[in-house]
Design brief:
With 163 residues, the chain is an alpha+beta fold. It has helices at 27-39, 55-60, 77-99, and strands at residues 10-14, 20-24, 47-52, 108-113, 117-128, 131-142, 148-156. The termini are far apart. Involved in the control of energetic metabolism and significantly contribute to cell fitness, especially under respiratory growth conditions. It holds the Pfam family RGI1. This is Respiratory growth induced protein 1.
Amino acid sequence: MTKKDKKPKISTIVTKEGDTVKVFEDLDTFETFIKNETEDEEFDHVNCHLKYYPPFVLHESHEDPEKIKETVNSHNRKFVRHLHQHVEKHLLKDIRERLQLPQLKFNDKSKEETPDHIVWRYNQRANFHERDFDIHVTVECHHDSALVDVDYLTVPVPAVAAA
C-alpha cells in the first residue's frame, strides 16, 4: 500500500509584473480559498490559477490520473461537452456559493476555439459588502491533455467621486 502524496496543493508565485498569483492543484482547495478570502474581506483582490483534472475525468479513470486516456482532450467532443457542463453547473455555481452571491449569473461569457485549445471566459460585476468588483473566470482545455486551467481574477471597481 502506497502513501498518498503529501506535497502542498497550493503555492504562491510572483509574475514579472509583480502580481501575486495563488496556484492550486485541486478544486476543493481552490473553493475553500475563495470562501476564506470572502470571509477575510479580501474578495476583491484575488488572483488564482487552478490546474486540475475535472471530477468526471477522474471518475472515468477510477480516480487514477495515470489511467486517463490520451484521447481525453479538447479534440474530444464528449470531453468538451462534459467540461462545459461541469463549468456551468458546478464550478461557477460553487464560486457563486463560496462568494455568497446568489445573484451572480456570469451573463457576459464567450468561447474561443482554436486547434490547440478551447477557452471559455466568464465575466461579471458584483457587489459585496458595499464594494463593487469585477470577477473574471477563464477556463481552458488543451489538445494534448485532460488537465484544465482555470484563472480566477477579481478586480475592484474604482469608486466614482461624487460631484
